[in-house]
Amino acid sequence: MRLLNKTGLYYIGISAVVCVIAGVIFYFSIQKIINEAVEENLYNEKANIIKQLKTFDSIPRFYLPSGDKLEIIPAGKNEKGKDVIRNVTIYDKSEDEDLPYAQLVFYSDVKGKTYKITISQLLLESEDLISTVVSSMFILMLALFLSLLLINLWISKKLWKPFYDTIDKLKMYQIAEGGKLNLTATNISEFEELNSVINRMTDKMYSDYVSLKKFTENAAHEIQTPLAIIKSKLEILMQHENIDGEQMKLIHSIYESSNRLSKLNQGLLLLTKIKNRQFAIANNVDMNAVIEKKLENFEDIIKIKGISIIKNLNENVKLNISPLLADILISNLLNNAIKYNVDNGKIEIILKTDRLVVSNSGLPLKIKPDSLFERFSKDNDSSESLGLGLSIVKEICDNYNFGVNYNYSNNTHEIEIKF
Questions:
Q1: Cα-Cα end-to-end distance for the chain
Q2: Which of 141, 123, 128, 147 is nearest to 26 (CA)?
Q3: Spatial CB neighbours of 4, under 8 Å, sequence gap ≥ 6
Q4: pLDDT of res. 382
Q5: How far apart, in whole angstroms, are the C-alpha atoms of residue 338 and residue 361?
Q6: Which CATH superfamily includes the segment(s) 285-418?
């Protein structure tokens, strides 16, 4: 989840909780104020009624606010007590419904008689007032909340723009091309410091890359030159007539070792070049044509081992990959399938728009499948294989973000590459 989205979620969550708590507090505060006002009105009416009762010799006609009710009845014997305020519902004939009232019940003496007096004040206006105030407050808080949220998002995007510009330029940066990143200048000290660190880091990476590239190229050249001299001298020695059989075996062993060392040097150099992305990308490499060409190259050895080829190739599979690496990828896969196959076995090649599968018959592995793509990993330590073929396949796949998997079942080895 992006930082702005996560910040927005925290902001929404905290604001929502604060708004709910503030709304509840505001509601009960308004209700308390109105209840106190109603209670004060009831006691004011009580004071007026008692004053009038003391002024007149009989119970006068009282005029109460519209909707209020007054009931004066003789109190029962020994019936007297403290003032009581309560909320009740009273049926109203004109409205044909029960309406809420606040009642004040008290007792008063008139000419030696005790009367029970009940004043009922209609609460509809109070409830309407609370409802109106709370609704208005809710709408106001919601509008304020949304406004602050939008303003926060706008400000955050504006403030974080240099950061996202830096991320985009880092995604496009190719170390093989070198050069400065030209990051966007900003007056935010943290982003400026980040850009400074990134510039120093990329400069150091490019410098190390150039040094490593030069080292591998020079090392490969310097190693290949003496190896070529050794091989040429050995070839001359093998042509001498005065060399006996034992000497010839020793010379041939040295020749094979130097040849193996030369191949090892070339394999490691290739891995380094792939890892450093030193191969140009070409568009629309026809993988079907590459497979057919490599099968022709291996045709002789395939016939010698009596291997049958099963092909299921889609003719419209074209990948954005270096032609040289595509050739190496297919060559290593087929070479591996042939080398570790059994006599009169089979190889099946499936090429689809989203994957390439190369499977071959063969004996179970003696090593863990997880280590199959590691450098110098071999199923047989005495094998003449360098153990670099599948590691080169893995490096090429990683270079182009292809997935590669190995599976073994029913005496069949299967390597699947997902494009």
A1: 26
A2: 141
A3: 153, 156, 157, 160
A4: 43
A5: 9
A6: Histidine kinase-like ATPase, C-terminal domain (3.30.565.10)
Q: Where are the domains of the chain?
A: 3-133, 189-275, 285-418
Q: What is the spatial distance between Cα 43 and Cα 51, in angstroms, rounded to a whole number?
A: 12
Q: Which of 38-42, 308-312, 356-360 has the lowest mean pLDDT?
A: 38-42
Phi, psi of 344, deg, nearest 5:
60, 30
Distances (CA, A) of 268 to 73, 176, 248, 278: 112, 19, 30, 14
pTM of the model: 0.48
- What class is the 189-275 domain? mainly alpha
Task: Write down the architecture of domain 3-133 according to CATH.
Answer: 2-Layer Sandwich (3.30)
At residue 156, does pLDDT exceed 70? yes
Q: Which helix (H) or strand (E) holds 29?
A: helix 3-55
d(CA 386, CA 379): 11
386 pLDDT more than 70: no
Residue 357 has pLDDT above 90, yes or no: yes
Instruction: Give the whole-number percent of the chain exceeding pLDDT 70.
Output: 84
**For residues 374-391, average pLDDT:** 62
